[in-house]
Design goal:
By secondary structure, the chain is of the alpha/beta class. The chain has 16 helices and 12 strands. The protein is globular.
Length: 434
């Protein structure tokens, strides 16, 4: 591990170093090879989806015996294929995220076709990571791809948690919520996961295409009603009747299956904390599963940071506060929102709450390299951010009201642009107190 920059001389560089350490820890080649099952008597079929799909497939291929049969199909987000990647036995395709497209629908349909005809002597290795839900948009009966696209957009703007969104997605899909595993039976399915969800629930990651689904059609209906999202009449009737119910825990199709974690948010936070401590800065991991509105979560973080900065409680300076999870940004229906994501919205709310508190720096970024739907992973906060924003003609409070954090950080030159990282263990928030 390379040494981090001196935080007193280069606080932005120190925080960027923490982000790089966190991303590196979440790369699948570290743990995936040791988790692979042995080759079976029959075939090994690889099926996968997610932002880490390409790097997971590469790690698998590199570790798989050259003389053992291997084939498969993995779908990842456009632009998330490393430029030097050369897969020989696993086909890799790209599709849209976060709003699905026809390429993802075609890939999902092909996966079900590949699964047909597998026998008990064959096996499936499922490579699942965050983003896989949007990348496998195979509509259930009564829905079209256009319906799925609209519902997905509305869920993203509604403030729904990732668990709520994926509950709906599981029940409106022909492949998620354990349906892919059911299609593979009687072949066992060995699922390898990179978690991007609070709590690391396998049924939530990518909407659990190979996992038993404990939620129900009634749960999905509840989310749709509370978030005020309409679905076509045929799909609504199917939800109400239970016709779109998913395979449940205890179903025979899961009897021979296994599930293992390749990388998790807690592991990446622990790696960042270890790097900070090696640089002589005390590190405190607040939590790896924080949810809620970005601006509300920022207020809590600001309160802790002020207590440390002004009173040395509950931690002494210098230190860095680390947290992970997935916050949300709710946009009122009919509101014309600006550009930004949950990381930059968190930072802008944090800056307004801190009001230029001396010695407080911060970074918030998504470990997949994309904050929301923009081209940045996140941004930096410095004590003089609000002052520089005013000098650049940006109104911080107005930007927050308009959900236009990207515009402010672009004006101040504080966007963090990392490019695709080829993994995804959700958000990293780091507050440095000097």
């Amino acid at each position: 591990m390379n040494a981090l920059p001196d935080p007193h001389r280069d606080p932005r560089g120190f925080l960027r170093g923490l982000f790089d350490v966190a991303v590196a820890r979440a790369q699948p080649h570290h743990a995936l090879p040791a988790l692979l099952p042995a080759p079976p008597r029959g075939r090994t079929l690889v099926l996968g989806a997610g932002k880490a799909g390409a790097s997971m497939a590469a790690a698998l291929e590199a570790a798989w015996p050259a003389d053992a049969p291997l084939s498969g199909l993995v779908v990842t987000r456009y632009g998330y294929v490393p430029p030097d990647l050369a897969l020989r036995r696993i086909e890799l395709v790209e599709a849209a995220h976060p709003v699905p497209d026809a390429a993802g629908e075609a890939a999902a349909r092909r996966m079900l076709e590949l699964a047909r005809g597998l026998g008990p002597d064959d096996q499936v290795i499922a490579l699942i990571s965050g983003g896989g839900s949007a990348l496998l948009p195979l509509p259930a009966a009564g829905l079209t791809l256009a319906d799925k696209q609209r519902i997905n957009r509305e869920l993203l703007l509604s403030g729904a948690t990732i668990a709520e969104m994926n509950c709906v997605r599981r029940h409106l899909s022909a492949i998620k919520g354990g349906r892919l595993a059911a299609a593979c039976a009687p072949a066992p399915v060995h699922t390898l996961l990179i978690s991007d969800v609070p709590g690391d629930d396998p049924a939530v990651i990518a909407s659990g295409p190979t996992q038993p689904d404990p939620s129900t059609c009634a749960d999905a209906l509840d989310v749709l009603q509370r978030r005020r999202i309409d679905v076509p009449a045929a799909a609504l009737a199917a939800l109400r009747s239970g016709a779109l119910e998913t395979p449940k825990p205890g179903d025979a199709c899961f009897a021979r299956n296994t599930t293992q974690m390749v990388a998790t948010p807690r592991q990446m936070l622990q790696a960042a904390a270890a790097a900070a401590r090696a640089a002589g800065v005390a590190a405190h991991v607040l939590a790896d599963d924080i949810e809620g509105e970005s601006r509300d979560v920022a207020l809590v973080h600001a309160s802790i940071a002020r207590a440390v900065a002004r009173h040395g409680e509950p931690f002494a300076r210098p230190c860095v506060l680390l947290s992970g999870g997935e916050t949300t940004v709710s946009v009122d229906p009919g509101t014309r929102a600006g550009r930004g994501g949950r990381g930059t919205e968190f930072l802008l709310a944090l800056a307004l709450a801190l009001r230029g508190e001396p010695g407080v720096w911060a970074l918030a970024a998504d470990t997949d390299g994309v904050d929301g739907s923009e081209d940045n992973a996140g941004a930096w906060l410095s004590p003089d951010l609000l002052e520089r924003a005013r000098a650049a003609g940006a109104d911080a409070a107005a930007s927050l009201r308009a959900h236009d954090a990207w515009g402010l950080f672009a004006a101040t030159g504080d966007l963090l642009v990392s490019g695709p990282t080829y993994t995804n263990v959700n958000d990293l928030r780091a507050i440095l107190l000097l």
